[in-house]
Amino acid sequence: MAYYSGSAVDMTALRQALIDACVTEGWAWNAGSEVLSKDAMFLRLQIVSGYLTLLGRTSATAGDMPNVVRIGQLGTQPLVWPLSYEIFVFNGEVYLVANYNVDFYQWCAFGLSTVDGLPGSGMWVGATVGSGVNPTGGPIYIMGGAGGDPGDNSTSGALFWATVTGSGGGRNGFVHSDLDAQGWWLGQYLTDYPVGIAPIVPLIGLLPNAWNSEAVLLPIRSYKKRPELKVSLITDLEHARYTRVDNYEPSEIITIGSDRWKVYPWYRKNTTTRNGGSGIAHTGTFGWAIRYEGP
After folding, report:
1. Which H or E run includes 17?
2. Is the CB of residue 243 less than 8 Å from the CB of residue 287?
3. For residues 147 and 128, is the Cβ–Cβ distance under 8 A?
4. What is the chain's mean pLDDT, rounded?
5. Cis-peptide, bond into residue 82, ω within 30° of zero
6. Residues 110 and 125: beta-carbon distance below 8 Å
7. DSSP label at 209?
8. To which H or E segment does residue 280 belong?
9. Greatest alpha-carbon span in the chain
10. Which residues in 63-77 are b (16+ Cβ under 10 Å) and which e?
11. Tell me: the pLDDT tens digits for 262-271?
12. Tens digit of pLDDT for each residue in 78-102?
């Protein structure tokens, strides 16, 4: 794993930092098509209307995700420059976390699924904001057992958390499993509600541990809805986990066994309304941890 950190004065600098980190670790960058690539992963990385947009592909020029995912203004809160960033580059997974205006965080991530037997490329892509999230009002809808948006006005802000999405513009994560010959879809049709966080809802609700106030790290997984009300596991992230951040400071390093992890809120920590809600500008104490092998 390679770890990079620094500050960026604008979105162009943030994108370049991500490109530079990936290229240093074996990715290829095509400046003409604005595509990062490695093995079966192809990612178009553009700046559009002030947002950093990510579009997964199955080749350099084709097989696009249904929608882009983005980092940028969320609700009435714009990004504040300069911001600080951290980039984690593993062999098959990449994570970027940006911190601005003291306690706001956004992220983007992409990688290759470790699940065997997928007919598709296995690439997955996510970011804080979907393609159609309306930058007004309370932009976050996240709770212990739900998240997303029935329209395009909010986002869960968390990777593979959403259980409710409307036209797809609020969806902030995709996987190219190509199960049932359905490409990047997570359901049986494009706007089908995804499985999201549902399988581990009881565990999320038990955190943090009442015995020692620590929060267990839980797997970040995504699923594909199949015919006859079945589901298939299509992503199981190797280097990131769900957790609760009630008793952790953002960017705190925790040690579990021989592994170290950096802990972050998904968007903004709020211990008063720890279980989130809809139409809000924070993510309660829902958060995540990324494996850390830095200094």
Report:
1. helix 11-24
2. yes
3. no
4. 94
5. yes
6. yes
7. P
8. strand 277-280
9. 55
10. bbbbbbbbbbbbbee
11. 999 999 999 9
12. 999 999 999 999 999 999 999 999 9
